[in-house]
Amino acid sequence: MSECTEHSGFRPRIAAFFCNWCTYGGADLAGVNRLKYPADFRVVRLPCTGRMNPEFVLHAFRQGVDGVWVSGCHPGDCHYIAGNMYARRRFTILKELLEYAGLDPGRLHFSWISSAEAEKFQRTAVDVIEAVRALGPVNAANVAAKTMVMELRKVI
Amino acid sequence: MKARAEKIREIAKRLLQEGKVDVVIGYARGASPMREQPFFARTPEEAGQLTWSSFCVGNTAKFLVQAAGAGERAGVVAQGCASRNVVGLIVEKQVARDKVVVIGVPCLGMVDSRKVEARIARSEGRRVESVAEEGEELVVRGRGFEKRLKRKELLRDNCFTCQHRNPVLADEMAAEPTAATGGGDIDTVAAPWEKLPAADRWASFRETFTDCIRCYACRDACPLCYCKTCFVDDAKPQWLGKTQDVTDVASFHLMRAFHCAGRCTDCGACESACPQGIKVRRLTSKIEKDIRSLYSYEAGMGLDAIPPMTTFRADDSDDFIKQGGAQ
Amino acid sequence: MITACKILGKDVFEDFFRNLANGREVFAPVQLTGKIVWGPIGGAADVDFSLDNTDMSPKEFFFPQSECLMRFKNTEGEGGRVMVPAPPLATQRVLLNIRPCDAAAFRLLDRIFMQDERTDDLYWLDKREKTILVGLGCVNPCPECFCTATGCGPFHEEGLDILLTDLGDRLFVKPLSGRGQALVADLPDAGPQDVSLAGDVAAAAAALVQRPAGFEPKKLAGRDVLDIYNLPLWPRLSETCLNCGTCTFVCPTCHCFDIQDEVKGEAGRRVRNWDTCMQRLFTEHASGHNPRGEKRDRVRQRFMHKFTYIPMRRDGELGCVGCGRCVRFCPTNIDVREVVRRMCENVEAISK
Amino acid sequence: MINPYLPYPVRIAGVRVETEDKNLRSYWLTFENTNDAAAFRYEPGQFAELSIAGFGEIPIGIASSPTEGDTLLFTVNKTGVVTTKLHDMQPGDVMGVRGPLGKSYPLAAAEGKNIVIIAGGFAVTTLRSAMVWLLNPDNREKYGDITFIYGARAPGMLLYKDELAAWRRRDDVRCHITVDRQADGWDGMVGFVPTVTEQAAPSPDNAVALVCGPPVMIKYTQPVLDKLGWQADQILLSLENRMKCGIGICGRCNVGPYMVCKDGPVFTKAELDHLPKEY
Q1: What integer pLDDT is reported at residue B325 of this predicted model?
Q2: Structural domains of chain B, count
Q3: What does CATH list as the number for D108-238?
Q4: What is the pLDDT of residue A3?
Q5: What is the ipTM of this complex?
Q6: Could you please report the per-residue DSSP string of A9-73?
Q7: Residues of B in Cβ contact (< 8 Å) with A127
Q8: What is the mean pLDDT of residues D32-37?
Q9: Which of A148, B96, D160, D161 could form a disulfide with A102 if both were Cys (CB 3.0 to 4.6 A apart)?
C-alpha cells in the first residue's frame, strides 16, 4: 500500500492508542469512506486519552515498536468533560522528558482527531507513519551509537 | 548551626511536654562521619538528642505518612524544602494539617559528603573520620590529616540552586529567616542534557544510570512516594522487568521521575540516598523546570495551590499536537 | 600442605601478573569517576594497592544481580517451553586485591548455596570453582568497619587462595590453598624479617579497626528465638528505616533472590534477580496474606537473620563479616553495631 | 550433577474441576522421560514447584501418593499469575515440575500409632496423599485407628468427592466429613472443623495428628486438641509460605531459622511454639 521508497521495504511498527469516542471513530469513518493509508499501526482502544498511562508508551517501546501515536478528542470535546485536558499536560511533560533523555521526536506523536474527521485521520496517519519510517529501522547495524529506542527494547 | 540545634531541642521538648505532639521527627547524630540520621523523639528527654547540622540530607516529611497512619500527631523539623513537602502532603490529603506541627528551620544548605570525600582524596586511601563545623568552615579530620574546607563550596547541587531556604509553612521557627535562595540560578543548571545535541542525550542518560542497583533508595527516601503498591511492584500486569537490563533500569527512572511531576521540591533526598551516587535529579529537575515555565508552578508553596497535573487550562500549550499535514 | 610464605618485589610484579593473567581474566578494585569499583585489569600497571575497599561487594562475580538461569522457546507444541540451562562460565578468573572480609563472606555463602548434593546451586559453584581469590590485607579500615568484632579481621585468611601484605616496595605473599601455592611456587621465600614485618603490619591494622562497645553477638547465642524476636526494641529500631534495599544489596553476605520468567516473541528465559527482605512484596502471598507485612517485621528479619538465625544453623557463625557497608550506605544511617548492641543489652535484661 | 533449578518436563494427562466455584482444579501429570519419573521419589507431605515457562513457578503440595504410580496429582487454586495460566491449560500440554521438595509427614516414625487427620478447605491436598498412602494394603496394617476429619464451606467445595465417598464406606477409617452450613442434598455432618473435632474426640493415646487448613481453622482447632489432652509434639502442621527456590537459598519463606521449603513445610506444633508466627 505504501508508496514510500526511502529505507526501501521498511515497514515500521507503530503502537496507536486511540480514544474510543473520537479518533477510533475517525479511523472507522476513514475506512467506511475507503480512504487509504498504510496499515503500519496497531490500535489499542482507550475509553479516553485520560486513561493513557505514560507507562503504556514505555511499554510499547520495550515491546519493540518503532513509534507510538496517541490520539484523542479535540480540547473541549471530551466525552468525560475534560479527560483529554488533563492528558494534554501529562503528554506535554512526558514528551519533553523522553526527548530530553534522548528519544527521537519523530517516534512519539499526539493528535486530536474527532469521529467526523476521516480525512484528517488519513493525513495524520500518513504523517505519523512517514515520520517513523524516515528514521529507519531500529537496529544496531543501522547506527553507530546506541539510541534510546534501540535500548528500550527488551532483549531476551 | 549550634543555635538552630538548641532551639529545635527547646521547641521539641516544649511541644512534647505540653502534649501538643506525640512525636517530633527530626535528626539525631549519625553513626558515620558526615551523616545525621532521622530521629523520632517521643519524650521530652529524647528531644535532647535532636540536632541540626550541614548533614541533614534526608527529608523528614517522608515519615509523616507513617506517623499519620499510626494516628500520631507529629512535630516535624523542616527546612524550606521539607516544609514544602509537608504542604504537598497536606494538599494531597495524606496528612491532616491539624495533625502536624512544623518546626521550621531556615536552611543554610546541606553539604554533599561525596564532594568532601573528593576534596580530601579518598583515592589515596584517606578517609574522613570526623567533621566539625566552625562557622562557614568544615574541619575535616582523618588518620594523619586535617583539612579546613569552605562549606559553601561543598553544598549539594540542589542546595546551591535552592529557591526557598526558609520554611513556607511553620508553626514554630528555630531561627530568624535567612537569605531566600542558595544563590545559584536553578534554570541554568536544571535539565543539563538540554544543552546536549539530541543524539548525545541517551549516551549521557545511560552513563548516569549505569551503576543503578535498583535498591529503590531514591524512591523510598522521597516524601512524594507513598503509594501502597508502586508501579514497579505491580504484578498484574507487571509493567517492569526486575533485571539490570538497560530498559528496565531506564524505565524505572523515567517513570519515577514522571510521577514526581509538579510535586517535587528538589529536596535532593533521592540523590543523597543513592548508594551509588547517581545524579537522579537530572531527570526530576528537567520536569520541574518545565512545570515552572509552562504552568508557572512550584510545588508545595501554598495550602490552597492546585497541583498542576491535577488541573488544566483551556489555553495550555499544545504545540506538540500534530496537525495532520497539508490538506 | 601449604609451605613457606613468599616475597614478591613490586618491581617484578609485572611478571607475576603476567603469569596470573595467563588464561584468566583478572579483576581488581579500580577508580572510576570518583568511585572505587571492581573492574577488569589489562596490565600490572593498572593494579593499585592503595585503594580502599569497593563500595559494592564483589558478590556480583558469583551471584550476578541479574542472571539468566535457563532459556526456552516461547511457543506451544513440540520443542516449546522446555528449559535449557544457561551455559557455564567460559573463562577462568582472578579477583585480585579482594579484601579479607569479602572473601570470608563467600565462605559463608558457600554454606548456603551448597547445602547438599541434591540442591547445590551449580551456578554459584561453577563461578566459585573458576575464580581464584588473591586477597590484600586491609591496612586502612573505614570508620564503619568492625570486622574484628565479627570473628573476621583485616588479614583474615578464610576463603582466600593467597593473602598479600603490602610492605611498601614489596608484597609479602602467603599461599593459602593448593591453587594459590601453584601460582607463587617460583617466588623467593620470605625471610624471617619480612615474616615479622608482615605480622606487625597485620597487628597494626587489626588495632585500627574499631571495636564497637557492647557489640557482643555471642550474647545472643543460645537464647530462645522468641526472646529476641519479642524484644520491645524492634518498633523503635525500625521507625526510620525506609525499607529500600540498599543494605541488602551492598551486603557481601545477603543472598536473597527472586526468579522471574521473561518472554519476548519466541524467546524466553528464566532469570534470577537480587531481591531484598526489606520489600513488603518479598513475602506477600498471592492471596494478599503477608507473614512480614509490617516494616518492623522486615527490619527484625534482617538483623535476626544475620545474628540469630544464621548462627543457629551454621555452628555459631555470624551472617555478618563487619565490612561496614550497610552502615555507610544506609540512607538513614541505621547502624548495625548499635542495633546488635541494643539486642544484646535488651536480651540480657531478660532472665534466662 | 543435578541442577536443582531445572524442572522435569511433564505432560498434563488429565484435568478435573474439583469445586463448584471452578477455582480448584486437579491436574494429573506424567513425566516425559521415564528416568525423571524414577528420580522423582517423594513421600506424602512433600511439595513441588510447578513450572510454566514464561509465567514462572508456584509451590504446590503433592496430592498423589507414591503408591499410585508415576502420575503426579496436584490440586491448584486459581489466585496468581501462574495458577491462572495453569487453569487455561489442557490435557496434552507440556509444563515442568521441580522437586520433590521439603520434608514429608513422618509417617514411618508413626508406625504402630493411631493417625488423626484434620483438614480444612483445599489444604486437604497433601493429606489426601497421606490418606491414600496409609490406606494402601502394604501400609494399612502398620497403623492403628485412622480418623479423617475434613470440612469445607459447602458440599460443592469438597475436594476428591469420589474418594471421600469410598473412604466413608470403609470400616477401617473413621470419616467425619462436614460442611459449614446445611445445604440441599447434603446428608453429612454440618459444623466447623473444630466443633466436629470436639465431637469426634480423637484420643491422643499413642497417636499423631496431621493438621492442615486455613489459619482460622488451626486457631480454633488447637484449643480443642489441647482439651482432649494432645501434646504439642503429637501435632504436625504443614506451613505454606511464599517459596521461590524451594531449596533453602532464596530467603523468603523462613520462619525463624527454618526455611519452610527445605526444613518444612511439615513442623510439629512443639517446634512452631518456639518460633515467630511468620506464616
Answers
A1: 60
A2: 2
A3: 3.40.50.80
A4: 42
A5: 0.93
A6: T----EEEEEETTTHHHHHHHHHHTT------EEEEEES-GGG--HHHHHHHHHTT-SEEEEEEP
A7: 322, 324-325
A8: 93
A9: A148
Which residue range forms the structural domain that includes residue A110?
Answer: 14-152
Domain span at B66: 2-112+155-310
- At B121, the amino acid letter reads A
Which residues in chain B have their CB less than 8 angstroms from residue A148's CB?
201-202, 205, 250
The per-residue pLDDT for range D150-175, each reduced to its tens digit, is 999 999 999 999 999 999 999 999 99
Domain co-membership, B143 together with B288: no
Q: Residue A27: inside a domain, yes or no?
A: yes
Read off the pTM.
0.94
CB pairs under 8 A between C and D: 134
Distance from CA of A8 to the nearest CA of B (A): 23
Omega into D265 within 30° of 0, i.e. cis? yes
Domain membership of residue B321 (yes or no) is: no
CB-count exposure of residue B222 (10 Å: 0-12, 13-18, 19+):
buried
What is the mean pLDDT of the segment spanning B141-166? Answer: 93
Are D54 and C261 a contacting pair at CB < 8 A? yes
**Do B143 and B81 fall within a single domain?**
no
Question: Chains D vs A: touching, with 3+ CB pairs under 8 Å?
Answer: no
User: Which CATH number is D8-101 given?
Assistant: 2.40.30.10
What pLDDT digit, counting tens, does each position of C50-83 carry?
Answer: 888 999 999 999 999 999 999 999 987 777 788 9
Whats the size of chain B, residue-wise?
327
C/A touch flag: 3 or more CB pairs below 8 Å: yes
Q: How confident is the model at residue B123 (pLDDT cuts 50, 70, 90)?
A: low
Burial C121-146 (b: 16+ CB within 10 A, else e): bbbbbbbbebbbbbbbbbbbbbbbbb
Interchain pair C226, D274: CB under 8 A: yes
Question: Chain C closest CA to B295's CA: distance in Å?
Answer: 32
Identify whether the C-beta of residue D212 lies closer than 8 Å to the C-beta of residue D149. no
- Mean pLDDT on C138-157: 92
> Which residues in chain B have their CB less than 8 angstroms from residue D80's CB?
235
Cα separation, A106 vs A90, whole angstroms = 18
Nearest CA in chain C to B39: C240
Interface of B with C in 10-49 (CB under 8 A): 30-33, 35-40
Residues of chain A found within 8 Å of residue B327, distances taken between Cβ atoms: 119, 123
Of C37, C240, C245, the CB nearest to B216: C245
pLDDT in tens, A89-121: 999 999 999 999 999 999 999 999 999 999 999
What value does the mean pLDDT take over residues B41-45?
Answer: 97
Subunits in contact with chain A (3 or more CB pairs closer than 8 Å): B, C
Q: Does A4 touch chain B (CB under 8 A)?
A: no
Query: Residue B144's pLDDT band (boundaries 50, 70, 90)?
Result: confident
- Domain count along chain A: 1
B83 touches chain C (CB under 8 A): no
d(CA A61, nearest CA chain C) in Å: 12
Return all residues near B143 (Cβ < 8 A) that are at least 6 apart. Answer: B126, B127, B129, C140, C208
Distance between CA B133 and CA B309 in Å, rounded? 41
